[in-house]
Amino acid sequence: MTDLRTTVVVITHNRRRELLRTLDRLAELPERPEVIVTDNGSTDGTADAVARHHPEVRLLRPGRNLGAVGRNLAVREVTTPYVAFCDDDSWWAPGSLTGAADLLDRHPAVVSVTARIVVEPHGTEDPIVRELRESPVPGPPWLPGPALGSFLAAATVLRADAFRKAGGFHPKLWLGGEEELLAVDLAADGWWLVYADHLTIHHHASQARDATLRRRHGIRNTLWFTWLRRPVGPALRRTLNLARTVPRDTTSLLAFAEAAAALPWILRERRVLPAEVETRLRLLEPAQRASKARRYTG
Asked: In three state form, how does the secondary structure of 97-119 look?
């Protein structure tokens, strides 16, 4: 069942044990995908452990922590038509990479396929899966699944050329909701993003994470995305809604302060979305406000 259509890209930072488990699982896949790992400046021996235990993996060592841009670096090396992202604490289920490639082969206007996320070790569905299934984004009837307004980098297969053409992940967003900006830029280019319930990725959340920093970056990135792409009225409404609903603590205050300090470059790079893409975002807003699976801004 070897499938040469998809390359798996993983970024990592100081998660040697989790990454080795993920690489073990990826090595067992019947598709036998090429795997590229960007080690974002780990200091725990991660890179050396990968080279020793998984010499078949293409290992990139930029020498510093690039955040999500580590994925951009890896995608430059991808020669297959599709790239599958997963995190160092997640792995694709057997057959899912082939299933995603089949969907992309059959639907040339679809740019990304996001899979169902199963949380380990108990095998339960991530709460966000229900929201993906019930996405309110309207799409044409030929779509192979619900249309999405964004995607989850840890659970998505994309067209590599479209990713590169759109510029990949913005270097300033780092990590924490960094997908939203790229997703709308892909939609503005005429692409559709979809959810596929029959595809699966497993996620065993690492304990080596700074939840406070990720939430701060998530709030900041949501504001930056809003100011970069939304018209003035919707941008103001979403900003005020965030100010009312995020926790009233130091993390939120720092996020708003960091976002505001970036206004000079935000204004230089601001590019309002086409009307049809903005309409999709407006339809998403009630679901976003009601979401119980918000990962960064709640």
From this structure: HHHHHHHHHHCCCEEEEEEEEEE
